[in-house]
Amino acid sequence: MSAFLQIFLGILTAMGGFVEVGELVFSVGAGAKFGYSLLWVVALGTLGIILFGEMAGRVAAVTKQPIFDWVRERAGFRMGLGTLLAANLVSLLTCAAEIGGISIVLRMMSGWPYRLLAILTFLALLAIVWFFAFKWIERFFGLLGLLMTVFVIAAIRLHPDWHAVGAGFVPQVPTLESPKDYLVYAYFAVSLLSSIMLPYETYFYASGAIEDGWQPHEVPMNRIVVTMGFVLGSALAVGLVIVGGQLLKPLGIDPQWPGAAALGPAFTMGRAGLIVALLGMLFAFGGAAVENALTGAYNTAQFLGWPWGKWRKPAGAPRFALAWIVMLTLAVLIILAGVNPIQVVEYSIVFSVLILPLTYLPLLMAAGDRRIMGAYVNNGPTKIAGWFFLALVTLAGLFALPLLVVTRGGKL
């Protein structure tokens, strides 16, 4: 494959896989509650995930070591084990939320029973991961996830005040009616930041770089793919915020379910827009479910030193294969138990921000170590930006759980 085509496909798959159920719910909800005033959080989170995504790919290409090798080496076994358990719990909850989101969308499309659709979703995802090679899993869900661009088209067709949209990218706290509204605003700011900087994205990206056999000379390609893919992907999140602010906020609609987001394409493009939006959500949620199941298996195998990788047949890495099967199975059992998938989304997003510092500190230390990175070590601006975002997510983590409790998940 030519380098150009590899970069092009990488950008498209990164863009198509950017939005998952948590980001969709919080992006549309942020717009519906606060208009465009939280767009600056989308921009800030995008810069953060670009920064650490690029580090994850660069460290993997140079050292051939995934993130949980560095977690175990830098944090020690005991603290590393705690990070592993926390990371896998977050991936499990996220995977369950994605399966629940898929089932909700399929129910909207078919009218079939929710739990039956959850089981069928589980079987379909199980078959895809079992039979597809890594690169085809990435391309299948990433490229079909590009159907989510219908939300950008819908946002444009809603004719928002583009001056107000631009002003939303300036960090701000708008004037609100009551003190409790400021707490809800803070909750959405923290949750939206976490939904964009989900830790599984760096785990999966670094493992994928090793799966694809990246070499040090491909570090520039990594930088292009991460930057272009995530910037274009963030345009989808911006489109969702605009749909929430321009369409749902004036109508007083509080989007509690993923399907509410599809009102934007349906309103602007009719039945065709609705169908494309629902299909886009299916593939975006499906890709995130698979990535989180594999992430749990990657993390466990890498930390414990097991053979791992989708390039191996299941018989060649049986514990790795069992790990992702267990992740998918536990995720669907959570949904079949009747747990509200939106509550699962909220918990997964809040718990994600709690473990972000434990994820990013070992990665930042590895990428800044000249002994192992050589000429590919972090430069001065990258170091400053890395420590800034580490401090930012640490601060967000301190407030995430109290805000979840006090605001009752933003429902005050």
- What count of structural domains? 1
Find the CATH superfamily: Amino acid/polyamine transporter I
What's the Cα radius of gyration? 20 Å
What is the CATH architecture term? Answer: Up-down Bundle
**Large-scale geometry:** globular
Regions with pLDDT < 50 over 5+ consecutive residues? none
Give me the count of strands. Answer: 0
What's the average pLDDT?
A: 91
The ordered string of helix (H) and strand (E) elements is HHHHHHHHHHHHHHHHH
Structural class: mainly alpha
Helix content: over 70%
Do you know the CATH topology?
A: Amino acid/polyamine transporter I
The CATH class turns out to be: Mainly Alpha
Strand content: under 5%
Report the end-to-end length measured between terminal Cα atoms: 53 Å
* Multimeric state: single chain
The description of the largest β-sheet is: none
Protein traits:
mainly alpha; 412 residues; Amino acid/polyamine transporter I
Question: Can you describe this structure in just a few lines?
Answer:
This protein has about 400 residues and is mostly helical.
Description:
The protein is mostly helical. It has one domain (3-406): Amino acid/polyamine transporter I. 78% of the residues lie in helices and 0% in strands. It contains 17 helices and no strands. It has helices spanning 3-16, 21-34, 39-63, 67-75, 77-110, 114-131, 134-144, 150-157, 162-167, 179-196, 199-211, 219-251, 263-304, 318-336, 341-367, 370-373, 380-406. Helix 2 packs antiparallel against helix 10 and helix 3 runs parallel beside helix 10. It is globular. The model has no long low-confidence stretch (mean pLDDT 91).
